Structures are given as C-alpha cells and as structure tokens.
C-alpha cells in the first residue's frame, strides 16, 4: 500500500540519513516522501536576533535543497517533494503527522547537546505525533 511519509529535515547529517531511510521505504512500498524544513526567527533572552527573516528563509531553503539533492541522486525513481515552512518545528511536524502515514526524523539535529542519543525534537515527536514515528540513528 503506498505511503505518505513526512520527513523532518534540518540540514544535519542525521536528518539526511532519515531522508534516505524514507526514500528507501518509498522505493519499497510506493508513495511520496515529503522533506519538511521548518524555520523560525531565533530568540535569545526574549529578544529577536538581528538576522532578517529573508536571510533565515534563504538559508533554510538552501539547506533543504542540498539535503534533497543528495538523496535524489541515489533514489531517482522516488517521488520526493520538499516543503519549507515557517513555524515551530514540533508544532508543524505534529500537525503534518495527522495527514501522514509515517513521520521520520533523525535522532538528533543541529540543536542537540553532544552525547545525546535522542534530541529533544525527536523525543517530543515520538510522544505527540498522530502517526507512527521512525527515529533514524
């Protein structure tokens, strides 16, 4: 049965591995893999950082394109689509999990503390997603 898989991508090596895992799953069962990059304006101590939104969006778009192109090269027959969303990563991926058959993420991303086995985003998604979640190490 064809699947719709949502994959959280942040540009980290772990997220690219998650996207590869999802592409392989789609190759096996058919369907669509959606590479989802969620970006936001970072805040420190209650203040927005001075980086313009357009620059942050452009950086996120480039990171998403790089990740998708790296995987597309090895899976040319897989329907792999990318989507850039502004918002909070956990909220957005939980919302998308209501429309997906499977949610796939890396075990940690850019924000993970060294030595953690599972990052905070992956842990929250395991607990709150509306569909099954695969965490790729």
UniProtKB/TrEMBL annotation:
Domain UspA: residue ranges: 1-137
InterPro entries: Rossmann-like_a/b/a_fold, Universal_stress_UspA, UspA
Matching Gene3D superfamilies: HUPs
Superkingdom to which the source organism belongs: Bacteria
Family note: Belongs to the universal stress protein A family.
Protein name: Universal stress protein
């Amino acid at each position: 049965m064809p699947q719709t898989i949502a994959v959280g991508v942040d540009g980290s090596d772990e997220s690219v591995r998650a996207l590869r895992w999802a592409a392989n799953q789609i190759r096996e069962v058919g369907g669509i893999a959606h590479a989802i990059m969620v970006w936001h304006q970072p805040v420190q101590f209650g203040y927005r950082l001075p980086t313009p939104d357009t620059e942050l969006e452009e950086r996120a778009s480039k990171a998403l394109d790089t990740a998708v192109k790296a995987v597309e090269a090895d899976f040319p027959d897989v329907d792999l689509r990318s989507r850039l969303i502004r918002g909070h990563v956990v909220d957005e991926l939980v919302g998308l999990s209501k429309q997906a058959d499977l949610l796939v993420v890396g075990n940690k991303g850019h924000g993970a503390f060294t030595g953690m086995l599972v990052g905070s985003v992956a842990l929250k998604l395991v607990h709150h997603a509306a569909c099954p979640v695969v965490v790729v190490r």
